[in-house]
Amino acid sequence: MNIAALVSGGVDSSVVVHLLKEQGFTPDIFYIRIGMEQEDGFIDCPAEEDIEITQWIAQRYGCRFEEVNLHREYWDLVVSYTIDAVRRGLTPNPDIMCNKLIKFGAFNERRGKDYDRIATGHYARTVQVESGKWKVENNATHPVSTNLSTFLATAVDPVKDQTDFLSQLSYAQIAKLMFPIGNLMKSEVRAIATEARMPSAMRKDSQGICFLGKINYNDFLRRYLGEREGKIVELETGRVLGTHKGFWFHTIGQRKGLGLSGGPWFVVKKDCAENVLYVSQGYDPATQYGTEIRLADYHYLSADIWGDIEGREVKFKIRHTPEFATGHLATNPDGTVTIHSAVPIQGIAAGQYATIYDTDAHLVVASGTIC
Hints:
This protein is 23% helix and 30% strand. By secondary structure, the chain is an alpha+beta fold. The protein has three domains: 3-124 and 162-195, 3-Layer(aba) Sandwich (Rossmann fold), CATH 3.40.50.620; 227-283, Adenine nucleotide alpha hydrolases-like domains (SH3 type barrels), CATH 2.30.30; 287-370, Elongation Factor Tu (Ef-tu), domain 3. A six-stranded antiparallel beta barrel has the order 16-19-18-17-20-21. The protein has a five-stranded parallel β-sheet with strand order 5-2-1-6-11, with helices on both faces. Helix 1 packs across helix 6 and helix 3 (71-87) packs antiparallel against helix 4 (94-110). The relative contact order is 0.13.
């Protein structure tokens, strides 16, 4: 196979190249440049050391190396999406959009289309359907009512699993991807890198993809959305507690940065039309929680394996965490889908994404936007 490996200089993507070489492949290595637009042009995410390590990996394993500049695409697709979502009072997820629109979207259109597979250092797996069943690594089989062949599945390492960051991918994208470290624990990945004497062996993990680089997030929002004073109101009493500089600086579940005494206080609701933040007091206020999560744009990543979803029991996540929640699905007259959670869920924020798994929490089945 002709394989393109996306390498960032971190330990995970570096080990991907090592594993591919062990399997007899010599991938072409690509480093994607993204960053923020400023008056003087684009500012890269901190890249110098990343590129040095990636070039070292390419030379060490005899791979061709190429940088791909996707600054403009990143700005037009991911940054603009983020600004628009925040302006509308939503909580965006640029990491998910970067995977969908940049790493496996714009890159594929620019260079990836020339390759049979794209390999990355994500902790995830793809599984193949055989005779109406899909297989996992322990040889257990699970029935799937579809003839499609490739599905996204969770990684062996539950703490590092990144399937929620990939839950907006299309079937065409998933079918082309390779996740060589998805069957390994993080400790095993580091052990391989250490044995191979890679300079990235003990590098600290990055927290998702780079969105702003060295730019302060509030400064970024202030530049594009400005400031507008509004009230901070206690939800239960209607008492005005203070003021804020714009609802777009705050998100549901936020505790820090409110400037209120007598706390802790949590943001539990936003009135975007009136520019009002509603807060509740206490370390664990009930108003932080909900059991109904309504989803727009509900869709299946590979295929509808269930048919009728009414009352269907599922596992799900609404944020990046090792734990899965349990609930059941229901359809609504307006075409949206609701997850009815078995237990109250903290910080349900419109604009975020819900990832829906089968009851064994192995197969990624569907996703939707919280509304």
